[in-house]
């Protein structure tokens, strides 16, 4: 079968990229020890799906559960990067494709310019911007800027866009856009 590369796993390192080529059987690949090997479809625990095969509302519900589970496991006081990596790992284990720190470009009339870096894009349909601390609805402007950039680029794939707050009391997921539910709403913190 063909190899499938997950976004959290990386491609093999070519022999000429290593300082010394170890002795190995002819035709075998060399992998960097800190990087993961490609996963074959028959090796995965979940069936391989293309991003368009995921239902945005279902992905969002799974991600919301993941956010809460990660907060319960790690508690209050972690950095945004720690929460982000933990969420990405849990999503990977559940078979959800995640892009972290995705650079978003949009054409503002002078060619494509960097509009920002999205914390997480999941299954090409859900966007999440992670925050630490109390809810500040003024942060919605950052997500709205990203959504305008998606619109300018001609992409209408993002159906759900949310701010995710890791607070001292739990997680709050504030939907800035939810085309699947019809209107934005908050999912208040769950107790630990």
Quick take:
The protein is an alpha+beta fold and 192 residues long. 24% of the residues lie in helices and 27% in strands.
Notes on the structure:
With 192 residues, the chain is an alpha+beta fold. 24% of the residues lie in helices and 27% in strands. It has helices at 56-74, 80-93, 140-152; strands at 3-4, 39-40, 98-107, 112-122, 126-132, 160-167, 170-178, 186-187. The chain is globular and about 45 Å long. Residues 1-47 and 182-192 have low confidence and may be disordered.
Sum up the structure in keywords.
alpha+beta, two-stranded antiparallel sheet, 6-stranded mixed β-sheet, 192 residues, disordered N terminus, 24% helix
Contiguous helical run count: 3
Radius of gyration: 19 Å
Strand residue percentage: 25-35%
**Biggest beta-sheet profile:** 6 strands, mixed
Q: Estimate percent helicity.
A: 10-25%
What are the SSEs and their pairings?
Blueprint lengths: L2 E2 L34 E2 L15 H19 L5 H14 L4 E10 L4 E11 L3 E7 L7 H13 L7 E8 L2 E9 L7 E2 L5
Parallel strand pairs: 5-6
Antiparallel strand pairs: 1-2, 3-4, 4-5, 6-7, 7-8
Helix pairs in contact: 1-2
